TrEMBL record:
It comes from the Bacteria. This is Acyltransferase. Keywords: Acyltransferase, Membrane, Transferase, Transmembrane, Transmembrane helix. Residues 374-385 have a biased composition (Low complexity). One of its GO terms (biological process) is lipopolysaccharide biosynthetic process. InterPro entries: Acyl_transf_3_dom, Acyltransferase_3, SGNH.
Length: 719
């Protein structure tokens, strides 16, 4: 990661800001923690949060100091130029290498999402891309994007633009209206207010939707703003020697211990993020030494240690090291999915990352940062200092390196954008899912291979193809007839025989929704309409909970549930079609939650029948979700990519006992079309069963519609 402005001002000497080598070292320590915890611990260390604070310390601190100098021009172009020179070249080169590695190692089923993240990373909205696609920040494994870590770069880029607009804009307004003094105090008040608002927003976001909160720029903003405040307010404060030593030792402990005590992915940027950030601020404050004094191992051990060459050098390459280590880790795990990260393999990844970081820093970052300084500096004082050195020119050797680095970056950018553009332009024809009637197709019998013993010929391609299966979604999703995670609006759509007087209401979350492909077929054939009341991740219960703690699943689910129940009663369907079970944790046989049973009793009292269908196996063998298409694309067999039956499905349907005594409940179980006696494979009858790791493909559900009709007939009494 990058922290803008190479100089690290923190204390005053003869009216100038002294350079802080220990802050360079703190940056190096933070990147070391990030790498170690990503590779061996599989959790968030707090190092990224320290980086964000240091970014605010350098960049915002520089802007605020410039605002106090009436001679400082307010042109944002020099600032933006330096940012682009500092951040973009290494990013472009790393992303291009990651795209190449993706094509060589990752299955084509993952290319689309990674290429979308390529654009998001290059244009600094990767955090929103991950948030909008509901991708939790997870430990490294073969299914994770090799560009996931670049969310933090996007947050920084967005912060830089906001900080430039606010500070330069308010400074210009001050000079135009007030015309005397400096706006420093006014700006500090604005920054403090923004910090307080962001702190509140991050705490609120953690309580409401932590996965989204983790990527939210507004929730992250305080981590950078506090750094800018510290750069101004604590710059001239020198603590007495005992307090300096105690504060830096305490700060070092807080920074290093964060990842060992808790996983920041579950808590940051909420209140617990003050733990590592507070440690960094203590180190910054305690590192302010009296004028003319140098840190020694005895009096200022932490400041001395962080000023050591090894940490300072780590600080120099921290940005490139951050960029390289994660793609190398993910691509290695994708190359050998059976491999565990050991001490030796982890050290190899670290060594390769360091070498690439050193090369990138020397041959890409440094040459392109060495633009004509006199033109790029924003303040007259900075321009004067550059003039006293060697002036704006480059040596012939520097010019050659500049040209070579520029050519490399341009080629990398063109290659990345060209690859993504070609893939996107051809995606429609490649990923469109053909409609095949699996009830009659002799090559793709799907569920009929298990239910009816219909033979599936060998040597026939899967349906849908590996590139198509991710798009084999329920029609209700394609029609926008399922409320997303943010919406609490109840949406009702009609399928099946839309003119029929008889009604089945399909209610609940996505695991109820994926049956619409079969219900639509059966409804049109047997004369009933299917009305959907669906919300992502929100199985319908009386109180929006499915656990023993009675905690609602999430806020908008709690808001949607009573409205959906009211709409359901008003609809007065003959039957409600919903899920009967759900798995225990990420791995384990299914259970029938008591909240499901409570809903069945309530519907029974309303005179509404219940058709409860058993949930499907979830593809997770203890190492994270397994996407069926990705696993098959990596060379896995249908059985290897699937689940053992005994680990994912209870021997007897648990809903049978749970629903005993409720006369209106009818149970449906299509497990035997998903699993044989021992395995639940991801391909049945040459049809891929799942479009991801736990949702059924529309093609497989349609192939099971015959058995669905056979079981629904007696359940409803309609045929």
């Amino acid at each position: 990661m990058a922290t803008e402005t190479p100089a690290a001002p923190a204390r005053r000497r003869r009216g100038k800001m002294a350079y802080r080598h220990d802050i360079d070292g703190l940056r190096g320590l933070a990147i070391a923690l990030v790498v170690v915890f990503h590779i061996w611990m599989g959790r968030v260390s707090g190092g990224v949060d320290v980086f964000l604070t240091l970014s605010g310390f350098f960049f915002l601190g520089s802007l605020l100091r410039g605002a106090s100098d009436g001679r400082t021009p307010l042109n944002p172009i020099p600032h933006l130029t330096r940012l682009v020179r500092r951040l973009y070249p290494a990013l472009v080169v790393t992303v291009a290498a990651t795209v190449a590695g993706t094509i060589l190692i990752k299955p084509p089923t993952q290319w689309s999402s990674i290429f979308e993240q390529t654009l998001a990373s290059l244009f600094y909205y990767q955090n929103w891309e991950l948030a909008l696609t509901s991708q939790d920040y997870a430990a490294a494994d073969a299914t994770i994007s090799p560009l996931q870590h670049l969310w933090s770069m996007s947050v920084q880029g967005q912060f830089y633009l906001v900080a430039l607009a606010v500070v330069l804009g308010l400074t210009a307004l001050w000079r135009l209206v007030v015309r005397r003094g400096t706006p420093t105090t006014f700006l500090l008040v604005v920054v403090a207010a923004g910090t307080a608002a962001s702190v509140w927003w991050s705490a609120h976001g953690q309580a409401v939707n932590q996965p989204w909160n983790y990527y939210d720029t507004g929730a992250r903003m305080w981590e950078l703003l506090i750094g800018g405040l510290v750069a101004i307010l604590l710059a001239g404060i020198v603590l007495p020697w005992p307090l300096r030593m105690l504060s830096t030792i305490a700060g070092l402990f807080l920074v290093v211990s964060t990842g060992f005590l808790f996983d920041g992915a579950a808590y940051f940027p909420g209140p617990l993020a003050w733990y590592p950030i507070g440690g960094a601020l203590l180190i910054i404050l305690g590192g302010n030494l009296p004028e003319g004094e140098r840190a020694t191992p005895r009096r200022d051990p932490v400041t001395w240690l962080l000023s050591a060459r090894v940490f300072r050098r780590l600080g120099d390459i921290s940005y490139s090291l951050y960029l390289w280590h994660w793609p190398l880790l993910i691509l290695w795990l994708s190359y050998d999915q059976q491999a565990e990260i050991t001490l030796v393999s982890g050290l190899v990844i670290v060594a390769v990352s360091v070498v690439l970081a050193l090369l990138t820093e020397k041959y890409v970052e440094r040459p392109l940062r060495m633009a004509s300084r006199a033109r790029s500096r924003a303040t007259p004082a900075a321009q004067q200092r550059d003039a006293l050195r060697k002036g704006p020119g480059r040596s012939a050797r520097d010019q050659q390196r500049f040209v070579k680095a520029t050519v490399l970056v341009v080629v990398a950018a063109v290659a990345s954008l060209g690859t993504v553009g070609w893939w996107t332009a051809t995606s429609a024809s490649r990923s469109a899912v053909p409609y095949v009637d699996s009830l009659t197709d002799p090559d793709h019998p799907g569920a009929r291979a298990f239910f009816d013993g219909v033979p599936a010929p060998e040597g026939v391609g899967y349906l849908p193809s590996l590139l198509q299966v991710g798009n084999d979604l329920p029609v209700s999703t394609m029609d926008g007839c399922i409320s997303n995670f943010e919406s609490s609006e109840v949406q009702m759509c009609v399928y099946g025989d839309v003119t029929a007087p008889r009604t089945v209401a399909l209610v609940g979350g996505s695991h109820a929704e994926h049956w619409i492909s079969g219900l639509d077929e059966v409804g049109r054939h047997y004369g009933f309409r299917v009305v959907t009341l669906l919300k992502m991740g929100c199985p319908l219960t009386l109180d929006a909970s499915v656990s023993d703690s009675d905690e609602p699943l999430y806020e908008s689910c709690a808001e949607w549930t009573p409205a959906a129940l009211a709409a359901l009663v008003g609809l007065a369907p003959e039957f409600v079609f919903t899920t009967a079970t759900r798995p225990v944790g990420v791995v384990g046989p299914d259970i029938a939650p008591r909240q499901y049973v409570e809903l069945w009793r309530a519907l029974d009292q309303q005179g509404i029948g219940v058709i409860a269908i058993r949930d499907t196996p979830w593809l997770n063998q203890g190492r994270g979700p397994i996407r069926a298409g990705d696993c098959l694309g990596d060379g896995g067999t249908p059985e290897e990519c699937g689940m053992p039956r005994e680990r994912s499905i209870a021997p007897i349907n648990p809903a049978g006992l749970a629903g005993a005594g409720i006369d209106s409940v009818r149970l449906i179980d299509l497990t035997d079309g998903l699993c044989d006696a021992e395995n639940c494979p991801v391909v049945v009858g040459n049809v891929i069963v799942y479009h991801d790791s736990h949702h059924l493909s529309g093609s497989w559900v349609r192939s099971a519609s015959g058995e669905l009709a056979r079981q629904m007939g007696p359940a409803t009494g309609w045929w």
